[in-house]
Amino acid sequence: MRSAATFITLLPGVVSAQGGDVLNAHLNGAQKFAGESLVNGASAINPSGGNGMFSAAFDFGQSPEMVSELKVLTSNYEPQYGSSGGSIFIMETKAGTNQFHGNAYYYGKNDALNASPWNQPKPTDKEHNFGGSIGGPGKLPVLWSSKNKTYFFFNFEGFRQSGGVSRNLLSIPSMQERQGDFRDWTDADGNLIPIYDPATTRTVNGQIVRDQFMGCDGKTPNVICPDRFQNSLAQAWLKYLPTPTFPGPLNNFIALDEPGSFYNHTNHFTIRVDEYLGDKDRIYVSIYHRQAGPTTATELPVQISNQSNVYKNPWMNRLNWDHTFSPVLLNHFVAGYQDDMYHGGSLSAPYADLFPKIPGTSRNAYPPSLYFSDGFQSYKGDSRDGPEKNKNPAPAYVFTDLVTWVKGKHIFKMGGESRYSANSMGWTRDEAGDFSFDRGETGLLGINSGSPIASFLLEQVDNASVQWQPYSMFSMRNKDYIVHFGDTWEDGESVLSSGPIRALPSSSGATTCATSRASFQCPVSRPSCRGQTPGPRTRAASTPTNRS
């Protein structure tokens, strides 16, 4: 998705990663994100995301067609700046003029023009970037007369992307392992990695020993008789696994799709209206809105997907008012509002009823998360509930006023700023339980043995955890009040400036967070724990705390 902020990588003193990555750009040696972004006169702070270039390029990225001016300040700030230790990035949007102007554009990319990768089917890879803008005078009754003039500028930009240049190669259980046959589970030299029966665990001469699985006939190594796992809870997940693309136990499946960002499906809307009232007042309003997501691409079937369902609907609005008291006295007032409006949760969260409800967990409104060693894909790797339960409203309100007074050789600038920001993050996750499977449950210490998939078939959990959340909210509130004064004067030969004075008379913040967590874990070195149902050791629920 295009962003006008990327032009900053062309400026002297800017260092960015390969490809001109503006999100990780450093200006004049400062840390990334250390600066501050101003859009139409007000800070684009995002209480829930990054700041500086991140806000300008990602959180509230503006279409190049909507921007009329970009400016970067790296030193010698005027008094109205200085809330950041890094650079100041100033962006001003376009306004309408006395004539109508507009444009339309389209950029496309299609996998029909791509070469096919070796030994793989050609992946879907389509991109569409389109939009247009129009601006001009608003010559309508009330909006246009001898006493007032109205101008407008509107921009729309859309972006759609599906697939990618390639798809990941995953490891899922082979078809024969799903039937209990682990004769394909070998080391790099082709030697069979033995699978041991945890039900035969015993101590002989001070050593813990187990018997290797030998099939129903007692003569076939590494084959588990089906009657040992035909009623296993594992079947509820295995039935959703696709057929492997290639033979073998590892790196055997080409992902169904290439997961992408929530910005792969985006609409930008920006409008600005300027109102001139006589020759002393100019008021303009700008409204920015982005619809991003949701993400739906998944590498495995959606019921066991590891991917997230994320969408954002940020707003950024501005009100500017310039009033001229006299040719030497000007007042500039700005009111700003923005909200990132992030929602993010598991793509497989709605499918709770398709899977077992594990005893001992705190809430079963979404499926549990399963994890495996040896590089096997997890099932529901995003352990959150759905995006409607994990939302992140983060409004910020900024009010600034700047008075400019020209007196002789002096230009005095004075004013103040008020900021209020909030970050209320819903955090609903891990209540259905996180369960990990490893080699140890079907192996022996000191021997290259065991398989996480065999442990899964036999319901042998390596470790598990669950969260109890009487309060599933993390909340922050912050208020800042700033006053500033500066003087710039000419001595006849050069322009001099006194050091601007900025004061922070009041700053307060309060953070409230509450969560509690209880877990059950069984170390690999204790085979006697194998196969136990994870009954959690509870911990007293934490009490919400207020810190300021």
Description:
The structure is a single chain. With 548 residues, the protein is mostly beta strands. A hairpin with a 2-residue loop joins strand 22 and strand 23. It contains four helices and 30 strands. Strands 7, 8, 9, 14, 15, 17, 18, 22, 23, 26, 27, 28 and 30 form a 13-stranded antiparallel sheet that branches. Strands 4-3-6-5 form a four-stranded mixed sheet, covered by helices on one side. The chain has a four-stranded mixed sheet with strand order 20-24-25-29. It has helices at 53-59, 175-178, 235-238, 452-457; strands at 14-17, 21-27, 36-39, 42-43, 67-73, 88-93, 101-109, 125-137, 148-163, 169-170, 196-204, 207-212, 253-254, 265-277, 281-292, 308-312, 315-326, 329-339, 342-346, 369-372, 391-392, 395-407, 410-426, 434-437, 463-468, 473-490, 495-497, 501-513, 516-521, 545-547. It has a domain at 4-93: Beta Complex (Ferric Hydroxamate Uptake Protein, Chain A, domain 1), CATH 2.170.130.10.
* SS class: mainly beta
Tally of DSSP β-strands: 30
| Chain-averaged pLDDT | 84
Annotated CATH architecture of one domain: Beta Complex
Coarse morphology? elongated
Oligomer: single chain
CATH topology description of one domain = Ferric Hydroxamate Uptake Protein, Chain A, domain 1
CATH-assigned homologous superfamily of one domain: TonB-dependent receptor, plug domain
**CA-based gyration radius:** 31 Å
The largest β sheet comes out as: 13 strands, antiparallel
User: How far apart, in Å, are the first and last alpha carbons?
Assistant: 39 Å
CATH class assignment of one domain? Mainly Beta
- The helix content, as a percent range, equals under 10%
Uncertain stretches of 5 or more adjacent residues? 510-548
Q: What is the beta-strand fraction?
A: 35-45%
Number of helices: 4
